[in-house]
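Risk register update: the risk of archive-format incompatibility is retired. Evidence:
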Amino acid sequence: MAETAVAISTPFLWEGTDRNGKKVKGKSLANDEATVRADLRRQGVVPTRIRKQRKGMLSGGGKITTGDIAIFSRQLSTMLAAGIPLVQAFEIVGNGHENAAMQKLILSIKADVEGGSALAEALAKNPLYFDDLFVNLVEAGEQAGALETLLDKIATYKEKTEAIKKKIKKALTYPAAVLVVAFVVTTILLIFVIPSFEDLFQGFGADLPTFTRMVIDLSAFVRTQGWIIVLFAAIFIGTFFYFKKRSRPFRHFLDRLMLKMPIIGPILQKASIARYARTLSTMFAAGVPLVEALESVAGATGNIVYEVGVLEMRDEVATGQRLQQSMENTDLFPNMVIQMIAVGEESGSLDEMSAKVADFYEEDVDNAVDNLSSLLEPLIMGILGVLVGGLVIAMYLPIFKMGAVV
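Archived output:
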């Protein structure tokens, strides 16, 4: 099957007419032009023109995001629910995608399915985009004969988790962006504006206020030794991201630190619990065994502290311990969550109770992020005003002092 995936690496643009004589066009991936012609004739299309797609035309939109995967899941689910055959659904979704890289991925999966592979097997060949959770759910749907239902659950799950991620990013990005702007504006004032005032003050023949002197000295330092600050900042940022990407203990330390931060910490904790509950509900509803489901749930929490905790829970559940007790042992979940999971275990409706937990915490995250944004806006504007306003006041203090003397 791996040979089939390699043999379809060439993209072709084609034009033709369908059974009704209507002009149609699209894109396909195949080993050669003859394969494209044969594939089009099987679809009832008479090709009039086929040409290879240039590499430059394929380079746009080359990054596949989790949002693309979520949209793909929803499109595929909708088409299967409408009775469209799987291979044809892949053809429609793939050729209609604006992202060239996503189009290539979809059509390569289609080729694997046409070659006799199960959909789960074809998806598993692309672990960078389809994780174990996605593959396991698709496999469960294929075995149960309810693929469109499981794809709908996957699409819903992906959409909800993406919504949470966007909320968290929004909460963190806005203050960071404003602080960057404040830093840039302050740097520009120190380098270009303050020296002009310094030249003006040299003719005053009087001592400058302490605050003004401090700002002028800071300006001189930034102009002469600023490269040292930039160098150390670049080294710090580079080292930070290097270890964040390659060191799991360092990421574990960062995630634990973030969870303990005021304001932001509780939001991240609620987001992790929401992802845990949503993933558990989706996996359990698909009939995936609890121990196997917890392994996928661990990776979906989005926080290494919770990932490690869920993996410990998996080991305890595998030895026969109840999920409720294993959750209590991690000391990561609020009592309300543990009690709702306990009720779900006892009543045989773990998927439903987990879904209720997920709904509650997703809404809680939404409200918390909205409140945080409302709180941060005046706070950030105040910081920006103090920085810029402080520099302006420092430069005008000598002028005010001279005015008072006159």
